[in-house]
Each structure stands twice: as structure tokens, then as C-alpha cells.
Amino acid sequence: MEANDQLSFEEAMEKLETIVMKLENGDVPLETAIELFQEGMRLSQLCGSKLELVERKIELLVETEQGVQRKPFANPNEERGE
Predict the structure, then answer these.
(1) Where are the domains of the chain?
(2) Are 73 and 56 within 8 A, CB to CB?
(3) Is-contact 39 2, C-beta < 8 A?
(4) By C-alpha distance, which of 42, 52, 36 is closest to 5?
(5) Of 4-8, 30-34, 61-65, 78-82, minimum mean pLDDT range
(6) CA 38, CA 28: separation in Å to the nearest integer?
(7) Which residue has the higher pLDDT, 78 or 81?
(8) Contact by Cβ (8 Å): 74, 59
(9) Which pLDDT score, from 0 to 100, does residue 1 have?
(10) What pLDDT is recorded for position 21?
(11) Closest Cα partner for 14 from 22, 38, 57, 35?
(12) Which first-to-last residue range defines the signal peptide (predicted)?
């Protein structure tokens, strides 16, 4: 079994979607459903961490009077204080 932290974002999302479909189908035993739910939570946290890491790496180039300036990526709503 492949360790979750070795999965790419896309692989983790595919596994998460499969788990969600199985749980929505509702024909799994309770014990299996709990295991699937726990695995889904781990995958969800992994995806969230990977997205956060990528977000930190993104930089926007902003043209100012002094030339081109590097600016860390920020959610547009955060810049407006919303």
C-alpha cells in the first residue's frame, strides 16, 4: 500500500472521490465505512496541505513605479480585509 504522503495531489483527489462514492452508495459495512471515512479525512488533509504549499510558492509580478516587484500570492478577499 502506497503511503499517502507520497501521492500527488491528483492521485489523492482520485482516491478521495472513490471513497466519497463508496460512502454515498451506502452499501458498505459500518466498520468499513468508518475506515473509509478516516482515510478520506487523511486524504483531505493531505490535499489541503499540498494546496497550501503551492499557494505559498506562487508569486505575482506586480508592475510598480520602481519596476517589477515580486509579491507573495494572497487571496484577493484577504487583501481587501474581507
Answers:
(1) 4-79
(2) yes
(3) no
(4) 42
(5) 78-82
(6) 14
(7) 78
(8) no
(9) 40
(10) 95
(11) 22
(12) none
Q: What is the CATH number of domain 4-79?
A: 1.10.287
Count of residues in the chain = 82
Q: How far apart are CA 55 and CA 58, in angstroms?
A: 5
> Which amino acid would we find at residue 36?
L
Yes or no: say if 12 and 4 are a contact pair by the CB < 8 Å rule. yes
Residue 12's H or E segment, with its range, is helix 9-25
Euclidean distance between CA atoms 3 and 64, whole angstroms = 45
The single-letter DSSP state of residue 1 is -
**∠ CA 60-62-64, rounded to 5°:** 165
**Residues 17-61: tens digit of each pLDDT:** 999 999 999 899 999 999 999 999 999 999 999 998 887 777 555
Q: What is the pLDDT of residue 39?
A: 97
Mean pLDDT along residues 49-74: 71
Residue type, 72: P
